[in-house]
Specification:
The chain is α/β, with parallel strands linked by helices. The protein folds into three domains: 1-70, no CATH class; 78-251, P-loop containing nucleotide triphosphate hydrolases (Rossmann fold); 259-442, P-loop containing nucleotide triphosphate hydrolases (Rossmann fold), CATH 3.40.50. The protein is 39% helix and 12% strand. It contains 15 helices and twelve strands. The protein has helices at 4-9, 60-77, 100-118, 134-147, 157-166, 176-184, 201-216, 234-240, 259-267, 292-310, 326-339, 349-358, 368-376, 393-409, 426-432, and strands spanning 41-42, 57-58, 123-128, 152-156, 188-192, 221-225, 246-251, 315-319, 345-348, 381-386, 413-417, 438-442. The chain has a five-stranded parallel β-sheet with strand order 4-5-6-3-7. A five-stranded parallel β-sheet has the order 9-10-11-8-12. Strand 5, helix 7 and strand 6 form a beta-alpha-beta unit. Helix 9 packs across helix 13 (368-376). The longest helix is centred in the first third of the chain and has 19 residues, at 100-118. The protein is elongated.
């Protein structure tokens, strides 16, 4: 059986119901349609040999009622009423106290959202931390399309699933199938906070059905998320990674409400290293006992650190024995960026993990999710003493989550470690060995204080330097 919309689409003006002139009109004060007499059905005037000859189809009054019913359903549970203020006009493209780099990032995200609103095609995914503006941009797209008269479904993912569950109630006025089909076929679907839903098999299955349906039909869809792609159901992740269908926009900005800077301040220990600047770094050129190779290596490390501080790009790893100067160089870079007005987080890795564990306490003023987001989304991050943390599965997983996000988002990150690269978590090692995103500087000089110790044995990549 053909769908009603297919039948109507194939009808020509000559096939309009008799006596209507092809355009039925509503008459004030009349409850009964003058065309169908209130039956809701008409028989088009078609040639005898037409395959649809003699078949009744919905009257245009019935179609209008069906469309009105659909619009009513969309307005009933699409949460845009509360988000009507979130438009492109109200989006602050320059941010609030953001750095130039953050302002450029916001401008890029705004322009991409505006372009999608004009011509919605494929999927657009906004990824970022709490308060980064991703929901505002998604709502602005939805409000823009609504203003053009297009039906839009905007829903927070957990609320959407609750709405579907509610249809099973005996008191529900809308059956599940009708609600579900409305979501599947929405001209534009906006799903806010993907990844925050419950992980029950039913929830995962319904969400997959929705996104798989729209993926196969290439229906315009906007998604916001603040979790890692690795945390998403594998079936959804494979679709989100389709570069021909899906575009990802990563917002690399802190919470506009100011909660992130305040929270990060508890983590940041840069104040303890304020005296570690480039001006105070000792190149040890006259120190007895250092070989010519070690002196040249230290000069090279110092020069590269200064260049990186002026234009940070990708990851930088300082490797060497305790006391060789790697922490001083990392702190000097951080202090330079801080002096330029850029938010910087400098934290010793074991201390970072302790801060994350502390959020599980009932007395913690900040949630675990918020604290993890603060570190992941930091504009500039220095992780000191990588490899000295406890080797528990939990600790390794948290470090990987932070580093993997920053790797994918290309956020500037500096590491110091006394471990050989081969002894680090394999998931981190493979990212550090990506020469397009990471430079490893192996400092060959021994410790400044006490008995000199041998530097870690070099591997083929241990002293690699890349000129930017």
């Amino acid at each position: 059986m053909r769908r009603i919309d297919e039948i109507l689409k194939g009808m020509t003006p000559d096939a309009a119901p008799k006596g209507t002139g092809g355009t039925p009109s509503e008459r004030p004060g009349e409850d009964t349609c003058p065309i169908c007499g209130g039956t809701g059905l008409v028989v088009p005037d078609l040639p005898v040999d037409h395959p649809e000859f003699g078949h009744a189809v919905p009257c245009q009054c019935a179609l209008r009622k069906m469309e009105a019913r659909r619009q009513e359903l969309l307005r009933k549970w699409s949460d845009l009423g509360a988000l009507s203020r979130m438009t492109f006009d109200t989006f602050v493209q320059g941010g609030r106290g953001h750095t130039p780099a953050q302002q450029r990032n916001l401008q890029m995200a705004y322009e991409r959202a505006r372009a999608f609103a004009e011509h919605p095609q494929g999927w657009l995914v906004f990824r970022g931390g709490f308060g980064s503006g991703k929901t505002h941009l998604a709502a602005a797209i939805a409000n823009y399309r609504l203003a053009l008269g297009e039906a839009v479904v905007f829903a927070v993912v957990p609320d959407l699933l609750d709405y579907l569950r509610a249809s099973f109630s005996p008191t529900s006025d809308t059956p599940f199938d009708e609600r579900f089909q409305t979501i599947l076929d929405a001209p534009l679907l906006v799903l806010d906070d993907l990844g925050t839903q419950s992980s029950t098999p039913w929830a995962q299955e319904k969400l997959f059905q929705v996104l798989n349906h729209r993926y196969n039909r290439r229906q315009p869809t906007v998604i916001t998320m603040n979790c890692e792609l690795d945390e998403i159901d594998l079936r959804l992740r494979s679709r989100l990674l389709d570069v021909d269908m899906v575009e990802h926009v990563v917002l690399q900005v802190p919470d506009y409400r100011g909660a992130v800077p305040n929270g990060v301040a508890e983590l940041d220990t840069l104040a303890l290293y304020r005296d570690m600047t480039f001006d105070r770094f000792d190149l040890r050129q006259g120190e007895p006992g250092l070989t010519a190779e070690q002196r040249e290596n230290l000069r090279d490390a110092f020069g590269f650190a200064k260049k990186y501080a002026q234009s940070p790009d990708g990851w930088l790893v300082f490797q060497g024995v305790y006391g060789c100067g790697k922490t001083h160089l990392a702190a000097a870079i951080a202090n330079y960026r801080h002096a330029q007005g850029e938010p910087v987080v400098f934290v010793v890795v074991p201390d970072l993990l302790d801060h994350l564990r502390a959020t599980f306490s009932p007395l913690s003023p900040v949630s675990y999710d918020r604290r993890l987001e603060e570190v992941k989304m930091a504009q500039f991050l220095v992780l000191d003493d990588l490899g000295t943390e406890s080797a528990t599965p939990w600790a390794r997983e948290k470090l990987y989550q932070i580093c993997n996000y920053r790797y994918l988002a290309r956020l500037p990150t500096v590491f110091t470690t006394s471990q050989e690269i081969d002894k680090l978590d394999p998931r981190l090692r493979i990212r550090m060995l990506d020469a397009t995103r990471c430079t490893i500087i192996n400092i060959l000089a021994p410790a400044y204080r006490g008995q000199a110790r041998n530097a870690p044995p070099q591997t083929p990549y241990a002293s690699r330097r890349r000129t930017r």
